[in-house]
Amino acid sequence: MTSSPSIARLSSGAPFTPIVASDINADGARNDRAFIFDPTATSDTSVAVAMRRLIGQSTSRVADCLTSQLGEVAGVLRNDAAAAAGQQSVARGPLGR
């Protein structure tokens, strides 16, 4: 009888970060994080209406992710000092509060 090693990876749900579908920072990758506009703070009414609609029509997890990051770039680390010290930091979002 022979045996072979096996590797398995289990996940109970992938975290997500809102991204844009273009290369806004010119690094060659289409994985740039989106800025989450605060509909109460923008002077552009079309952006405010679109954000309210997006949040209102999203699942509760997506709406929580978006509202927790209003006025910020999505997925920015909460504790930059910990990251600089090489410690683990938690990204913002529904799975990383």
Structure report:
It is built from three helices and two strands. The protein has 97 residues and is mainly alpha-helical. It has a domain of 50 residues. The chain has a two-stranded antiparallel sheet. α1 packs antiparallel against α2. The radius of gyration is 18 Å and the shape is elongated. The C terminus is likely disordered.
Provide the descriptors you would attach to this structure in a database record.
4% strand; mainly alpha; 97 residues
Quick gist of this model?
Helix content is 27%, strand content 4%.
Write the layout of secondary structure elements.
Layout: E1 35-36, H1 45-57, H2 60-67, E2 72-73, H3 80-84
Shape: elongated
Strand residue content: under 5%
N-to-C CA distance: 48 Å
Quantity of strands, as a count = 2
Low-confidence stretches: 78-97
| Structural class by secondary-structure content | mainly alpha
Task: Calculate the mean pLDDT score and round it.
Answer: 75
Main β-sheet description: 2 strands, antiparallel
Q: Please tell me how large the radius of gyration is.
A: 18 Å
Widest β-sheet, arrangement of strands: 1-2
Proportion in helices: 25-40%
Separate helix tally: 3
Q: What series of H and E elements makes up the topology?
A: EHHEH
